[in-house]
Amino acid sequence: MRVLVVEDERVLADAIATGLRRETLAVDVAYDGAGALERAGVNEYDVIVLDRDLPKVHGDDVCKQLVAQRYPARIIMLTAAGELDDRVEGLSIGADDYLAKPFAFAELIARVRALGRRAAAPLPPVLERAGISLDPARREVARDGRPVELTRKEFAVLEVLLSAEGTVVSSEQLLEKAWDEHIDPFTNVVRVTMMTLRKKLGDPPVIETVPGVGYRL
Questions:
Q1: What's the pLDDT tens digit per position in 14-50?
Q2: By residue range, what is the domain housing residue 181?
Q3: Of the candidates 138, 141, 165, the residue with the CA atom closest to the CA atom of residue 151
């Protein structure tokens, strides 16, 4: 899942991004409304964590523009304005969820993952295919009931493959969903990660390479 965090308090923004990355999510950060619109114009996000009180372009206006463009991401507003009227106003302009500061990070994670499931075709809480099971909430993976220890990036790649439900996923799509905007598009990181993931999942192999197209589980 790819997330955009939009928050002008840089320490808070970077802390949120770091926490989300620890949950195996790919995260980009914008520190003002103009930067948020710029990144949304070139990247496809599943969820946008959007502060309301932003410089350059107010968070409300960012939300309105994205909704008007029918941008596919789900939007959760993160703001210090937590009164009922504020929440109603935020939801009325197109936000999908609203979380007032201060907040528990575990709740933010749960809300982001819930919105991510709604951003695409509905998926079950635990993804299963070919004897592989992956629980995003608990960050647990098993093959035929045997626990498999994965790195955060291996976990993210496997989650993308399982979410594809048997369709082919290109290297470009994996870079888009499992990494962030700082990754070199010409890197061999996808191939290397796929090699270590296959090794950890064991035999017989369950991840198929489709020459010239991508990967399929």
A1: 999 999 999 889 999 999 999 999 999 999 899 999 9
A2: 127-216
A3: 141
